[in-house]
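Problem: given the chain below (348 residues), write out its structure.
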Amino acid sequence: MTKPLARRFLLALCSLLLASSVLGQPYPNPYRSVADWAKLPDGRTWGAVGDLDVDPDGVHLWAVVRCIATAPERFGDECVDSTLDSILKFDADGNVVESFGGGMFIWPHGIDVDADGNVWVTDAVGDNRIPEGDGRGHQVVKFSPTGRVVMVLGTPGESGSDSNHFTSPADVVIGDDGAIFVADGHGATGNNRVIKFDRDGNFIKAWGKTGYAPGEFRVLHTIAIDQRGRVFVGDRSNNRIQLFTQDGEFINQWTQFGRPSGIFFDQHDNIYVADSESDDVQNPGWEMGIRIGDANLGWIYYFVQLPDGDPRDTAGNGAEFVAVDAAGNMYGGEPSPRRLQKYVRARP
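Solution.
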């Protein structure tokens, strides 16, 4: 091949690669799934799997597992009449080694494990799913590592928009200084705000409202903090991640990660974003799966595509939540398939 021809070939190849990136062609997938990794004790059947987080030891995995096998008419209140524990801790072999929270939640949703091993859980149930006189829902509960209730934020059973109330809080994350950030809330027409408390649960500030502009939200489904201290909010129904300072100042918005339901940062400064809702109706041109990239700049490296199901299905399939342990194993919390899916690296 002559030099001019080789040069033209390389230019054409580069153009093709660039076009593939722009057009959203699939990224490499270095993972393989591990079937039936997680096991429930005493013959318990799987309910919807909610949010996930990794214990400070880097090995154990915490998960929200809702109480009953999800039926369409029960999605949204699967723990209302159950005493099954909904907060489960799994060891490296997928066995449950700790559990608690039975009878405390109607629809447990978000989870965060702080640096001291305390477990924070949100109850994102909607008002229409709370039985009359039931004092649960619209709260964030802090547990010790063994399940003792340490703190409750919000007014259980009462929705609202002041500093003492939430409306279906979707997720919570704890900063390095102990500050508490709550994504409030799960409904498109709810409060749609981030609330910041100090480490003792004292209200500091709130920001956001329903809308499409920077600093406005439609369904805050997930919240996380990267190693630079930036607050990442999964603004799911706006098909974007919004980035803020911890004082609520808007930094940027990222749309390259699809329709974000779950966000996780590993110790190597990678960002993992679970997208369980991109389809021909809610986010045309995008596919469901887990996108992995650089947490600083937002470049995407890998895409773990939805392993099964129809990508046009609006019900939500595959991983809605994601976490990664210190060994690099990835886990997907899958509500509709009722599955806690483990992934291992198949190649570097």
